[in-house]
Amino acid sequence: MKKKFLLLFLSTLLVTMISGCSSDDPENTLTEPPTPISLTETERATMNQLKDFDITFTADVCKFLDVSSEGTNMVCSPLGAEMLFSLISNGMSPADRPGILAYLGVDNQENLNALNRTLINKLPSRDKNTKIRINNSLWVNSDFGGILTPEFQTTVTDIYACEISNLSFGSDPAETVRQINNWIAAKTNGIENSYFIRINTEVFAVALNTLYFKAIWSKNIFKKENTHKAIFHGLHHEAEVDMMKSRVIDDQYAEDEFFHYFTLDLGNQAFGMTILYPKDNVSMDQALEALTPERVKNLKENLNTAFLHIEMPRFALETSLDLNNLFSTFNIDSFNKSFTFSMFTPNREGTITFSQGASLTINEEGAEASATTSGAGALIADIHQDINLTLDHPFFFFIREYSTGTTVLSGRVANL
Q1: Does the domain made of 3-216+316-361 have the CATH classification 3.30.497.10?
Q2: What is the chain's alpha carbon radius of gyration, rounded to the nearest angstrom?
Q3: Which residues pair with 341 in a beta bridge?
Q4: Which pLDDT does position 22 carry in this prediction?
Q5: Distance between CA 279 and CA 260 in Å, rounded?
Q6: Which residues are 266's β-sheet partners?
Q7: Which of 212-216, 308-312, 336-340 tops mean pLDDT?
Q8: Domain extents in the chain
Q9: What CA–CA distance (Å, rounded) separates 241 from 191?
Q10: Which of 7, 40, 281, 391 lies at a 20 to 30 A Cα distance from 307?
Q11: Mean confidence (pLDDT) of the chain
């Protein structure tokens, strides 16, 4: 019987606007605008290809969840998915690798590796007012006797900073679970400390990606005293929520027949939360069909300066995804198949189980900060509009690093 290769990526993200101080809090000071991450021409081209994946992956997850549970809240990590798919594709046979890369929208493994090396090295230090940690690990079941090739080990340790461990899954399954859960907890600041309950001893490896993110709002966007009760008109029901109310924000805004589009800065303005808020006459089905890379690109290219008056609910989201079912639903055959894993000597045949868990908390607490200049977006006019938006029905969000366009996480608020 073929062994299974359990590929699990856990992306646990916390975006909590903080006011207290702890050893893990971002620095609560506004400094000079952070230096952008410099990408080579090849890395920039690869990043531009991945931007399409960020949008389509988010829309696909929403559509998949709506098949079984229409109108579900969702949070996922396109960066977490891309990072682990990229890592593991290095260990696949030349016949299997192109299918994984094609799903990501890229055509060259070496170029993708180079981009990921830069992101792993540069994102954590991008903004002193933001904490971001990216960690990868590979846990090999020593019971089946396979040995990782030196070439694969060098690639994943040097480029992906991947920690490799060899354990006997069968001799002490509980100890295997304990060690892996302890690693996850350490990398996510204790948010996830019991992700695994058990591990199938027939699995011959577990690959993990964890992504931890914590930030404050930039420029004191929200104050607690301005939060008030309001009704959120969800897809399933209406609910009374705590509606945060922003100060006047001098920033950028675009719209088309489907969406309002704007971004709220995080930290020292190296990161931001982009909101795509469907217009009142647009259904969720219509919004999901309209959520395409081409539309988002067009909105971004048609930004105008505006005075934004935003009301947005507090929310906390948590999602567990069985991506194999998603791939089956959308007939993505490059994942639901038997693979040849060239990372092992001798090569191994097996299948992959893909899953992801992510969580997100948004509230109004944060440090006071004065405005600084942001380079995000291209302005087409210098005439300020007054835009008043109350996010009282479902919307999409994308948390991104500005200089590279990396999408740390994305999702949909559907019901509160």
Answers
A1: yes
A2: 21
A3: 92, 348
A4: 43
A5: 7
A6: 217, 271
A7: 308-312
A8: 3-216+316-361, 219-314+370-413
A9: 25
A10: 281
A11: 82
